[in-house]
From TrEMBL:
It holds the Pfam family adh_short. This is Short-chain dehydrogenase. Belongs to the short-chain dehydrogenases/reductases (SDR) family. InterPro entries: NAD(P)-bd_dom_sf, SDR_fam. It comes from Streptomyces griseorubens.
Length: 239
């Protein structure tokens, strides 16, 4: 996937990692970047084309795909977190996590798949999380949704291969954005993570690990729960 002269559509592009994707795409030579947001008036990157889209509203998603018929790269970045706890979190919060991260990502991918196909194949980037692979009780709703989104991403990769569309998953831990503002501990620079993800797209990588935490957790996957959850033995959590 060549980023130069590409036409991209980024969801959740009015702030945080989404805004950094828009900036990084222009830096990489993209010809046009559609900046999708619930409130397109909040899109701040000069040169971006604001588009109203709510990924949980299927009519809105369909309208966005019609408004951007020249897209060659879709970045499914929009997301939210309810911080729903596994034991006492509101079940409606769990549903909202799945509606956003799983159904919303799937809706965008389905809507833009024929657009990408008509324009030569292109690529899809799904912003996942290190919590796709490991869970924590205080954000169990988010983690469960991201795990399901990872599964959807893998299925999309297989389903879209025939039309020449590559699918890249980005796994990353906490970022220095509004979403993680209340979380203690170190956080990665969203600009650097966006650039790394786009480098992965250009290199044809199926997955990009955006930070050391993600690399550490992925390395523990083959060893099973004992390695993923050392806190069960009195150790320190991996995330």
């Amino acid at each position: 996937m060549k980023l130069e002269e590409s036409v991209a559509f980024v969801t959740g592009a009015n702030r945080g990692l989404g805004e950094q994707f828009v900036r990084a795409l222009f830096d990489a030579g993209a010809a046009k970047v559609y900046a999708g947001a619930r409130d397109p008036g909040k899109v701040a990157v000069p040169g971006a084309v604001p588009v109203a889209v709510d990924i949980t509203d299927h009519d809105s998603v369909a309208a966005a795909s019609r408004a951007a018929p020249d897209v060659t790269l879709l970045v499914n970045n929009a997301g939210s977190t309810t911080r729903a706890h596994i034991l006492d979190g509101d079940l409606e919060s769990f549903r909202r996590e799945f509606e956003t991260h799983v159904v919303g990502t799937l809706a965008m991918s389905r809507a833009f798949a024929p657009v990408l196909g008509r324009n030569g194949g292109g690529a899809v980037v799904n912003v996942l999380s290190v919590l796709s692979w490991v869970s924590i009780p205080v954000s169990a709703g988010y983690a469960a949704a991201k795990a399901a989104e990872w599964s959807v991403t893998n299925a999309l990769r297989l389903a879209l291969a025939g039309q020449g569309t590559q699918v890249t998953a980005l796994h990353v831990s906490y970022l220095a954005t509004d979403m993680a503002a209340g979380v203690p501990g170190p956080k990665s620079d969203p600009g650097a993570v966006a650039r790394a993800a786009l480098d992965g797209v250009a290199a044809g990588l199926p997955e990009v690990l955006g930070d050391d935490v993600s690399r550490r957790v992925q390395a523990a996957l083959p060893e099973g729960p004992a390695a993923l959850y050392p806190q069960l033995r009195g150790g320190q959590s991996l995330v």
